[in-house]
Amino acid sequence: MKHILIIDDDETFKSLIQSAFDTAKYSVALAADGVEGLKSMGEKRPDIILLDIKMPNMGGIEFLKEINKKYGEGKTPILITSNISSMDTISEGVVLGIRGYVLKSNESLQGIVEAVERVFNTAV
Amino acid sequence: MTLLTILSVLAIPSLALSAYLLFREYESKGVIEKREQDIGRRMYELAILKEIGDRVGYSLDVQQIVDIITSSLHQFIEYAAVSYMLLEPEKVIFKMHLERSVHRRFVVDVRDRMLGSLGALLEREFNKNSVKEILSGAILIEDLDEPVQSFFNIPLVIGDKVVGILTVADTKAGLYKEEEMTILYKLIQQASKAVTRLQDVVRTEQEKVSAMVESMEDGVVMTDADYRILVINPAAKRIIGQEKKVEITIFDFIDNLGGKMDMRGRLEESVKLKKSFVSERFELRDKFYQSFVFPVKTRTALSEGDVLGGVVIFHDVTREVELERVREDFTSMIVHELRTPLSGIQKASELLKKPVAKKSSATSKQYVDIIYQNSSGMLDLVNDILDAAKLQAGKFEITREPADITEVIANRISFFDISAGERKIRLSVAASEDVPKTAPLDVQRVKQVLNNLISNSLKFTAEGGTVSVAVVLHEPGAAINDEFRKMKASVADLLPEEQFKALSQSLAIAVTDSGIGIEAASLPKLFSKFKQLDNKALVPNIKGTGLGLAIAKGIIEGHGGIIGVVSKVGVGSTFYFTLPAAHKEA
């Protein structure tokens, strides 16, 4: 069973995306911001992280920098799920080792689930 | 004898009469002759004046004018030499035209006398070395050692200022009598008046133009073809931060523009290629500018003339840039506020569309709840935007009906009671006894204002805090703080009395919280549209369009009331508004 960590301040999105993952195949942990995300990672290392960018306390980019420092770069696959589509943010994420980028409101829940599965299928 | 006697008696009176008549005739002839002479001379004077007038034209060059006068003068005054002295900043110009040859000593004598007169007129000493001498006309002859016998000075005055003197001199004695002096005076006066008038006109026009340039908010700089600054207004100095500096050169601009705009290069293009230039926006000392560079040309009716230099205009576009930024922020805020709930609705329905077997009725209810909440939020947002648009268009209509404000407040308090209770915030209400049972209110709109103020207060108040609503009847001229104090209603800070002074009898409502408070610098922005305080950093999960207070202001002002806020950081905020107790038709 794969463990997924979803870090997002949008409660609606979190509860909906959680429901979209097949409970037989995945376990899901939720965090409201980067700080909670780091805490959750300490409890159980996820196989993938779905990460929002704009969040209070600690945003997505800052979170990426933190985990790179703590666990080493690229150790955990990360998909950015956000509505921010600015190239600067995406390229900053790429530099920090993200695996993919999903525009939350452009993608269906199923589409996001498939994006996650693709990451697992291409994982070495 | 008798006949002879008679004849002689007759003859004598007739003779006397004839003699008398003859005398009369002689006398009148003299008068007429004299008059003819006078008229002739006057005509002559006028002709000369006209000629001089024509030749002087619209010249403002004093030396040129005096040259014209002196060259015409010999037509009616006799002299060996006519000369003038003109004051220049560094020197005195002395020009003498000789009609007849004279000795050198004659020239020196006239020069010294003129310098003496000029010194007396201006009450200052002149150094002989500073005199620049120009001689013309007849040559100097050493044998003709005749002294100055006749000499006459006339000061040259322009606009009440002595600018020099004009002198006629001769070797013959007793030449200049009243008549000659009068005509010379007239001539000089006429010329001086013309120049003074012309200078006044030019000065008035120049003053108009320079006052216009001076008072322009855009920076204006004009340079000559060698990039020397000819005109610069205070705004241009301010833009480069050189308000105090008197002598500004192009280098001050080059240094202070820091490469943001190549002023020198653009001026060169302008002067040499007669090209205009419009720059991109650039930022300088926290402001945004767009600059324009134009060639300055002499232009005549027939042709485009030479380039005299260039003009650079710095147009302040800070306000436009700010507005654009606000609009962009507003648009992205709206997009965000709409996209998030819409995306939630879309994803919840996606889950609902899945085969029934996969989900329980409890989870289905959860999805429907999400759809309901998100769509309600969006509807509120759309209503806010519509209200803001109405405000913008000035179409905010207030429909008054007699209503009890305490009842309206009580209704809102009960509406917020549950959410306040959930967060352990004490929500209270107090009304003074004299508050009237009815006042002309638009109940729905006043409810909207109360919703906004109370929900804001709840949002920014931590668990265990308080939010209180107080209403008093404000009497004209009374101190509002006393009125609130009397009923023991606490406010975050003293309300500004001056705002309440001019009000008629009004209901005054204050919503006070024990929240985080608002920085003084942010207070003025609160009620303007498209501005939401950056409170997100302080309090997580606070969303909003920032339109609520702008709409509340529109509603209260529509009633003829005032709305405002006082706040202390760490203590809390009081939002207050008034509603007239009686409606006066405008």
Question: Could you give the topology of this structure?
Answer:
The complex is a heterodimer of chains A (about 120) and B (about 575).
Chain A: E1 2-7, H1 11-20, E2 26-31, H2 34-43, E3 48-51, H3 60-71, E4 78-82, H4 87-95, E5 100-103, H5 109-122
Helix pairs in contact in A: 2-3
Chain B: H1 2-56, H2 62-72, E1 81-87, E2 92-98, H3 104-122, E3 131-137, E4 150-158, E5 161-170, H4 178-215, E6 219-224, E7 229-232, H5 234-239, H6 250-257, H7 263-273, E8 277-278, E9 282-284, E10 287-299, E11 304-316, H8 318-353, H9 361-393, E12 401-403, H10 405-422, E13 426-431, E14 439-441, H11 443-459, E15 466-474, H12 480-486, H13 497-501, E16 506-513, H14 548-559, E17 563-568, E18 572-580
Parallel strand pairs in B: 2-3, 13-15
Antiparallel strand pairs in B: 1-2, 1-5, 4-5, 6-7, 6-11, 8-10, 9-10, 10-11, 12-14, 15-16, 16-18, 17-18
Keyword list:
heterodimer, A: 124 residues, alpha/beta, five-stranded parallel sheet, 5 strands, 20% strand, globular, B: 586 residues, alpha+beta, six-stranded antiparallel sheet, five-stranded mixed sheet, 14 helices, 18 strands, elongated
* Shape estimate of chain B: elongated
Unreliable spans of chain A are none
Annotation field: number of helices of chain B: 14
Following the backbone from N to C, one meets helices and strands of chain A in this order, namely EHEHEHEHEH
